[in-house]
Amino acid sequence: MSTKLRSLCLATALSAGMITTLATGSAGAAESTTCKPTVRIFTMQADGDLWVYEHSDPVNGGFSWAGAKQVGWGWGGKTFAGADGRLYNITDSGELRRLRYNNGGWDTMPGGGQYETIGWGWQRYLTERNKITADADGSIYTLEGDQLRWWLYDEPGRRWAYGSGQVVDTGWSRFNSITGGAPGTLQARDSANALHRFRFQRSTDRALVYDGVDPSNDWRSSGQILTPGGDVYYAVRPDTGQLVWNRQTESDLNWAGEKVVGYGWGTDHDVTATTTDCSADLPMPNYRSVAGSAGEIASVALPATGGTHILGVNAMTGAFKDQYSAESGWATAWVDGQYVGVSDGVADDEVGSATVASVFAPTGDVLLHTVYKDQWWAPVSIKGGMETKPSISQRSDGTLAVYATSGRKLFVREQIPGGWRPWRQFGTAEYPAELTLITDPANSSIIVAQTTDGTYEVFKHSQGGQPTRIGWLPSGATGKVVLSGDGGTGLIAFARKDNTLMFVRGNENGFGSSWTPVADAAGKQITGEQFGAHVLSNGSTVIAATGEAGLLVSVSTSPGVFQPWQTIAAPDSATNAGIRVFPTRSGDVAVVTGFTAGSRKLYSASVPADPATSLQFTGGSIN
Prior knowledge:
The chain is mainly β and 623 residues long. 1% of the residues lie in helices and 49% in strands.
């Protein structure tokens, strides 16, 4: 205490105004940090006194203090600071109280006192003191075992905001401390005292930085870590009692270099800072509003309690159309809105429902639509700011993974017990079109995404991990790629090369180096941009496409060996906008096509026991 006061006697208060500097690392672009003339650091001391100290060189880390003032007595429990003078105190009984210091005193809270009780049962943070924090936008984060949780108290409404307490990420048991600062920014400390940077955008639920670590790890501290915002950080060294300053540059994650700015801080129970006294011009993504799909691209949902649902976006209205099989034939329902596209569905047979994903064009929010007994529930938003039709995958434990693109970048969001992980970016190129995926026999998602230079990158995504590139598809093909099982234990990718449909086999470790024609192309040239494939119950793979001869199907007799093309429908004058191949609930195989004119046709066939036996399709228009 006395050492701190002696250092303050040497400081001179700065005049009013803002202080700005460029926080530059050894690499990357400069980032501007702006601070108030002084930043407020609160200390709850061992005797229960609460003090506020004003550091007057937060941008550069100079040993310069403007003053100190005792602002409270008899404090106990756990205290941490938030935005604009807000303090939160957890009492010995677990009561969470909200206060605000306005530089001249304490605000009067609703009810007339100096604090407002906003929660109970928070006593775990009396012992896990470094596992609760607040950031500059009012969010509170808690670290509970393996889970990171998010909270927000709605001050005008005097209640917790919707979603408060939800799990926003898992895999955090490796961290022993979290520190919130700039909006959505967290520094998480591991057992080696290295700091891992995270930054979340609340409006889109994106992780703008995820688990970023300074490659040199040149700033480590085992004591309390605090920040006034703007990527300025302080740490208390428990062994020496020194207060140490540092500043990070997000573009390269480097630290400016620690400086000692105070002594005698090692005996304080809590050291915390107002998180809005500094700010930095950190980059934020902007969602680009996009139009809906240019036609009714067919997708399929097969709930156990309903019929076959054929879906697609109407190009004129943006709503998506649901044609579903009913006892008396085919019925039609519409889901209002303006959508970019609708994914194929994943079924939850225990509930009897099926869920599809769409992008709501005005906002880019990814919406999950669930159909049950031919009725659509209200959609659930998982945000995102996405710009292309999403794809959805279901894991063996029933959780979902959703993939989409925005700004020509690939993103994934995974469902976890109690919530969703943030949207995370993967891949390093630009990807102008929607991606293609399949869940392989090992329960991993295999993703193919075409880059702007025309190459097809292949990624593998195991549950809970980050998607990683496992290779590329062979060169020479163009346009859409479709993934399927190969009829054995592997995978197969289909793409068009000139007017021939080609395939290449692979597995979860990658694909082969050359394309092979699906079947003899003589008289059966492929002219359509869309095609579909699926593995049948007899182990064969069926591929459907459109060509000069009409709607064509080829079936494998063994993995990678296909029969000649079979025509199942004559050419149609309407432009084909989508094909899906899928197994029906009755065990048949169906091929559905959608057209820009709005018509849809469906053909089905029984699946023979012998893959060499030709499929006999029947059907036609379902409009």
